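Sample pair:
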Amino acid sequence: MCLSAFCLRPPRRSSLKPLPQSPPNHPTKTEVPAVDLPRSGSDRDADGSQGPRVVVSTQAGYPMNIISNHDFSNGLESWHPNCCHAYVASAISGFLNGVRPSSGGNYAVVTQRNESWQGLEQDITEKVTVSVKYTVTACVGVYGDLHGPAGVQATLKLENSDSSISYMFIERILVSKDCWEMLEGSFSLASMPRRVVFYLEGPPPGVDLLIDTVVISSERMEMMVNTQNHVINIISNHDFSCGLEPWVPNCCHAYVASKESGFLNGVRPNSGENYAVVTQRSECWQGLEQDITAKVTFGAKHDVSAYIGVYGVLHEPAEVKATLKFENSDSSTGYLSIGSAFVSKGCWQKLEGSFSLTSMPRRVVFYLEGPNPGMDLLIDSVTISCDDTEVCRATSVDENIVRNPQFEDGLSDWSGRGCKILLHNSLVNGKILPVKGRYFVSATERNQTWNGIEQEITGRVSRKLAYEVTAVVRTFGNANNADVRATLWAQSPNGREQYIGIAKIQASDKEWVKLQGKFLLNGVASRAIIFIEGPPPGTDILVDSFVVRRAMKAAASVPPSDEGFRDNIDSRKVVSTNIISNHDFSRGLQSWSLNLCDGFVVSGEFGPLKGVTAKTGSNYAVLTNRSESWHALEQDITNKVSTGLTYSVSVIVRISGAHQEPSAVKATLKLEHLDSQLSYISVGRAMVSKERWEMLEGSFSLTSMPKCVIFYLEGPSAGVDLLIDSVVVSCSDVEHCEDVSHGANIIRNSSFTDGLNWWNPLGSCKLSIGTVPEEFFPLAKDSVNHNQPISSHFILTTNRTETWMGPSQIITDRIKLHVTYQVATWVRLGSGATSPHHVNVALGVDNQWINGGQVEANSDRWNKIRGSFRIEKRPSKVIVYVQGPPPGVDLMLSELQIFPVNRKARYKVLKEKADKIRKRDVILKFSGSENEGLVGASLKIKQIDNCFAFGGCINRSNIENEDFVDFFLKNFNWAVFGNELKWYHTESQQGKFNYKDADELLDFCHKHGKQTRGHCIFWEVEDAIQPWVRSLDSNDLLIAVQNRIRGLLSRYRGKFRHYDVNNEMLHGSFYQDRLGKDIWAYMFQEAHQLDPSAILFVNDYNVEDGCDSKSTPEKYIQQILDLQERGAPIGGIGIQGHISHPVGEIICDALDKLAILGLPIWFTELDVSAENEYIRADDLEVILREAFAHPAVEGILLWGFWELFTCRDHSHLVDAEGNINEAGKRYLALRQEWLSHADGNIDTQGEFRFSGYHGTYTVDIATASKSISRSFIVDKGDSPLVLTIDK
């Protein structure tokens, strides 16, 4: 059996203790006492070393208390009043009348409370970790005008990575006046938020909250710190106190034996209260393993010790081994033996060993193995510790590598970067206060933007590992907003310097903001300094805290099909879909949340509950330590339900425990509404016993869509365990539960045949119906959905006083999540228009604006809009509207259509097109076949490479990362440089040139046979031009342009196959505005003269997706024709391809138009951005298939593929540490699909025929006497290719 997510909650108890009396007439304090700054090094040990950051009780055997200043002996240090006031009462300052401390000499008084949630809080982010159970004990009281007991509550506030805030209830008790009471509870984090704040709250407003002491402890920390030897255990859940999480049985079964579940006969734990049992082992190597990739580093020695035992029929001691398994970047697997021990039955044995890594594999797994098959392996505890504390701390995911991050040690470890830094506990008479600790720092007297505050982190940051940076910052001394940036400076052993931009945010002098970002070092850094910079000179930077820790791996994406959407099923086929994720607990408790109780999943036949086996599958969930009847299991189904549908619910349940009578189990929906009010819907109820599984059934329907919908199970009495075998929630409304109806218009009354029904004016404008002239029909028929009739009516919008005013329709109930919708309509300007204006189809999704397509419209003709959109999160309201022209201009709309796109159906068409243009019939003729006995011989043909250009963007630092290089070389045949060839990189300061980076990248590409594009000679957008160039007058600017083009093209003559001559001329006009219209053609002419072998490209964005009226295919064509008329030797068309929710038909339409020019088309900077990796993969597949199937397209280059080295977030194919995601897997799968293979026999004519993609092949021939291998190339051509293969 297997237990996961297992954490037991201790029994709750309440201890009442009278408040000791104090002398009368005490002085009353209502303000926070002033705090003095500590002396440098005041928190260091006597020997000068930094002590551990966790407070440790001085009494032997006591667990660690992670709360700083837990008894207020240091005043309010580390504590913060939450929108109220607080002070510490002591014998010196005076106690409240009649109230003396319970345990020490002080207590905190939280006063002037206007809300019940106001109280005292402490940031514990750096002191907690996932999968650890923490016990909370607080001695609390209340004081004031109170007529009965008042509730006091302990709570966690969690700030998540997406900036959302959630709260975790710990415990609540009732407290009476004049007595101290003990609040006790516990919590465990399933994932690590960005910030964790513990706080006490609860009495009614006006009542003071008293706090004597607070203890948060864990006797079994995930990363136990030995205060004597500074030893860190990198093994998570080392003593199985949290079940098996995150241990994994290796092709066998395992469970945790405990007092509650029962121990094996005669076997008690050695050190704690649990041990793991690894059973049903059919091979000696089967055992228990844990992934420790993120916790080890090369160059450090790791010591291993494990207490192990064996169980079963044993006649002699059995050998148990500790082993490391390595998965390398080339997908090979290696093993390293750590140590072994011979174990006898009936005793625990200590296994010891050590290891050190000389290089970092892609994955490192530690496992225990060894007894003979049939023997059970017992594991009491495992420790892997690092003898180099500094290295191990830097490698730990949760460890902050920044020293003195909240300036509790003053300015120790910090320095000014070209300026002064000062320590403060407040500014502006207390108006600016620290957020987290007691102090903050200002970087002042700044006279350069790069001036700021810095810390050297050399030796604490490792290469090829991703780090996350979080700093709380603001500005001072300037009322305007300004950029604040986090930057890393790194120097390699050969002296090369590199600046890595980490994060940027707009900050002000009005509030603290969080600066967040990630970075990765590709190469070895002999020195590394992290700093904050950015605002203009004269503006101070304030820093409250600074955290740099290993970046947590992103949560695994869920395929859209698991969220109620299946794009690959015929739209007319009705399939009952279970909207519950992980419905049978086959993935542990993933997707489920424990509601104030504990739980685990039992897998296999041998579980802790005797006689209980799963009903439908091989797993069931156990909910235990339930102190209220409503404590159980829940799942958020907000994104999976819709209004107006009926959902059927069926759950297989039973109970367990001392309770003898049947008990009611209920299924319930909790609805959180937009006004934050809660309501509940009873779904179903069943009487359940211990003897057998029962079916709970019910149904529900939503009449309106709340902000949040939670499905949960509840009901047995407190103390009774609830067992859940499986949960199914499915749509039973056949008419509405069909899959997405592809091509069906979701706009009601789209042809306006029903007047203005379903349509409303947005704002105070007026709508009326008009008639479309007959000449409109031939044009309209080509653009709108052919399944719908063409209407002769249109909506006329008048009295427009704002640009956003126009016709609108609410479509909330017709939108499905994760579906790509195509937009098609025709618009025209009416009265009041004297020139063209932008018109766009917009969607208001709650408070977000989404562009559904855009065009520059005229008043003399109808203008087509084609666009697309997709919604990823369940909205409360979606409205579509048409907007854009300035006030006073009338707007006409005809035949608006929005319909789901059937991508899969189009793929069939694209495959046929691709095979037609990318494949060629081949006839292989084998010379001497009759004499050499080749007739009938078997052969295998394998394509080695497709000659179609697939490229990727690289930069200089990437080639120092072996994993990056390996992926690039295997999967791309072209390269483009990210910045190294751009003018602002090669000549950032006038006359100071840097071609070294480009030279080294070019040498790298040529060494490995990769073709290169030169990007770019010039960039027309002013923001991308370095300041010294922008400051030149027209004469000096022309000279600079000439020097740039001659210097670059002469240096690299013949080395770049392509050049983007002047980037983004549809979106910028810097050089043209200053040097005249002929300057663009001049750039092309000069480049061609200096390097005639290079193909010269125009290059621009948003050409292919209909979302930008500045860069339509028509405007791009006109620009190219104008340049050609002026003599520009344009050789290719570059489409950048930074696209979201692509629609194949729209892309193909743009390519068809551009192809009229007869020039090769390349996607030069392709990326797609979607947070969900499966959706990202789908989007990428759309563009790759469209491009590969179009005869005018000759190449595709991705603008980055490695996380942290892409243009847009959520566009990478490989994460920062080398793991290929779903989008990367889809790319690789398509590359494999576009390789041809064949096998068969040589015919009697000595020939073999096949059809294959253009590229390089090998053929292997096997005869009775010998084997022959040859290679050949299939190039482009319309007629069959006849090749003679010599013997």
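The longest strand covers residues 133-143.
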